[in-house]
Specification:
Radius of gyration: 20 Å
CATH class: Mainly Alpha
Distance between the termini: 35 Å
CATH topology: Growth Hormone, Chain: A
Oligomer: single chain
Structural class: mainly alpha
Number of strands: 0
CATH superfamily: MFS general substrate transporter like domains
Largest sheet: none
CATH architecture: Up-down Bundle
């Protein structure tokens, strides 16, 4: 890991993310992201096997959406909590909850129990990520933040190289359960590394808490997303009422959780958050269904399907290193990334209808787009946030990420299963067109980012 970080570590002032005072937090944060990245890469690869073993193809998308929806809820609740109490306790509780979710998912005897375990994982992930953003904001000076986010993207390198293959091999030869259970001991090292830094971060006097209205809004958004996805996944008689209730809940909750003007493409911070949601929804939506397309349409094994995800993540990491070293404005890379994500999704959708291996080079382009944009948008968010709003705004960014991903994955799942197993190729093509359209909207939103002088 030192080799991965070394070429990114020195700022113009001579300070480094690996000097005394920063070394422990840097390694701890990178290890946490490595753990989450490995889980993400491995789970995406083995989900077709999980669905087959538990007879749960109808709940395939819920294996991802449940995690995202509960992550959305805990993200909102964590924002004000982290600002008021500091990141230490929320981070530890979040990591412990994530481990509990791994246990439930790994021991599941039915697809519903598995989905419940994934939901618990989401609760822990949401809290941990908000706390980690605040750790970065309060531990590192402004000139090092882009390099920290570049290092976080570099943390995807090892999981990208071995995560899909290891996940596939473990699932095929030992059992998919160990993809979850085997991650539990890996939580200990980053926890030990981060403890000193977490103890040194003092709470900021933020005044009154966010109030009950924000919590009601969080519940409304999470419940609305779940009901909306249930409506899309239900019969034609239950679809319309559930969809209307879900949309009403989102309409009530979202304006209370996101910065004013986010849904109207207002320039500045609102557009930063909206671009993240659109790109995350489009990219991760496509990535969820690539292994399903490869295994069902082209008869790939889980290990070979994982290779396609690997090259996409490597493109992400390489592009992130480029933007982390560059002096160009962050807004430039956010727009460039949005264009490449759109192009990658279009090419991958066409490629999957022809040959499984053709999806690999296409997904390098999509991954590179995410590498250019995600870190840049994270830096923009922190730069535009006052210290006492870093937790709330980081929470809003995660809400945009998780809501975009959960809704897109859920709707795509309904599209794919709606066409039936006999026409799964058609369903996947329609879903791919939807992903591309959402990514293109992300390009339009990226044009609304303000270029700072």
């Amino acid at each position: 890991m030192t080799a991965v970080l070394d070429h990114e570590r020195v700022s113009d002032s001579g300070r480094s993310v690996l000097t005394v005072g920063f070394r422990g937090p840097t390694f701890g944060i990178v290890l946490v992201v490595t753990l989450l990245a490995f889980e993400s890469m491995a789970v995406g690869t083995v989900m077709p096997l999980v669905a087959g073993d538990l007879d749960g193809l109808a709940l395939y998308a819920w294996g991802f959406s449940a995690t995202l929806i509960t992550s959305l809820l805990s993200t909102v609740l964590a924002g004000g909590w982290v600002d008021r109490s500091g990141p230490s306790r929320p981070f530890m509780i979040g990591l412990g909850t994530f481990v509990a979710g791994l246990v439930v998912a790994g021991a599941a005897t039915s697809m519903w129990v598995f989905v419940a375990g994934r939901a618990v994982q989401g609760l822990g992930t949401g809290v941990s990520l908000v706390a980690m953003y605040v750790v970065i904001a309060r531990v590192y000076p402004e000139e090092l933040r882009s390099r920290v986010f570049a290092a976080l993207s570099a943390a995807w390198v090892l999981p990208s190289l071995i995560g899909p293959a290891v996940g596939g091999v473990v699932a095929e030869h030992i059992g998919w359960r160990w993809v979850f259970l085997g991650l539990i001991p890996l939580v200990i090292p980053p926890t030990l590394l981060l403890v000193p830094a977490l103890r040194g971060i003092k709470p900021v006097d933020t005044g009154p808490g966010p109030g009950k209205s924000r919590y009601f809004a969080a519940v409304a958004v999470a419940a609305g997303a779940g009901v909306l996805l249930y409506g899309f996944d239900g019969s034609r008689w239950t679809m319309l009422p559930a969809v209307l209730v879900g949309l009403a809940s989102l309409a009530f909750g979202l304006p209370r959780l996101l910065p004013a003007g986010t849904l109207r493409l207002r320039r500045g911070l609102p557009s930063v958050i909206l671009v993240r949601g659109m790109l995350s929804g489009a990219f991760f939506g496509a990535e969820v269904f690539i292994p399903l397309a490869l295994t069902r349409l082209h008869h790939f094994s889980a290990t070979r399907a994982g290779i396609v995800l690997t090259v996409g993540a490597l493109g992400w990491s390489a592009a992130s290193q480029i933007q982390g070293r560059s002096k160009r404005p962050r807004e430039f890379y956010a727009l460039l990334g949005a264009v490449l994500v759109t192009a990658g999704i279009v090419l991958a959708t066409v490629a999957l209808q022809l040959s499984g291996w053709l999806a690999a080079p296409a997904w390098i382009i999509g991954g590179a787009g995410m590498g250019f944009s995600i870190g840049s948008l994270s830096v923009l968010l922190l730069d535009l946030s006052p210290e006492d709003e870093q937790g709330v705004n980081s929470s809003a960014l995660q809400i945009s990420d998780t809501l975009g991903s959960s809704l897109v994955v859920g709707v795509a799942g309904a599209l794919v299963t709606g066409f039936g197993a006999a026409r799964i190729g058609t369903g996947l093509a329609v879903a791919g067109a939807m992903f591309a359209a959402i990514a293109f909207l992300g390009v339009i939103a990226a044009l609304r980012l303000e270029v700072r002088k």
